[in-house]
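Contributing new records

If you add data, match the layout below exactly. Sequence lines come first and carry their own label; structure lines follow with theirs. Keep one chain per record. Anything else will be rejected by the validation script.
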Amino acid sequence: MNLAPGTRLDLGDGSAYLLGEPLPGEFRLPWRRARKLFRNYRHADRSLFEASAEEALDVLIRGPGPSPQAIEFELKQVFSIPGTDSFLEPIDVIHDDAGSFLVVADPHASPLREQPLAVRADVLGELNALLRLLSDYRLIPDILDPADILVDRENRPWFLGTDRFLRVEANAFQRGLTQLSERWDDLVQPVMPEGWKLSRASRRIPGSQTPARMTLRDVLRKLRRTKRQ
């Protein structure tokens, strides 16, 4: 599949995408901007015609990869969790000989690293809450990378790393939380001053079993105390 900017992808079901430039950043799988083209119905001759460029939808396309099964897990087990509002809206899944592609809405956002320090701190607080919510479902990311976090003009964070989550078995959950704490440090260090600590005044998360004022480190301390008892 030709993925050069300006390439048109016609999918055979009437839908089409016009590819744009790659999204800057070091991602596990490449992201690129694109526009989803639509067709309108002409009543006069009962035919379909392509809508104007002004009616196209700005999207992001990730791929090629991973497998169709991995994308199915991502959509059904990660995107579907209630109370999450930092994931981009899924639009489409494209399967091709080159691999599978996930299409999501473009938030017109910029990288976390480019934000003022105060905005970065607020975004990390929201991401910490998101990670605690997902951990309630035993979903732990295998890596946390600042490149996966975008921030829009209203300082709303968007998390691109939905393909990084794995479901941890119950008997390995405590080890998974320990690893998550280490990965949190790997995320924070490149974007925050040395010694920065997450504020304890984090939000309550709908559906979460973790108390609102607990950080990931607090969860680990509680598990260790429970184990000793």
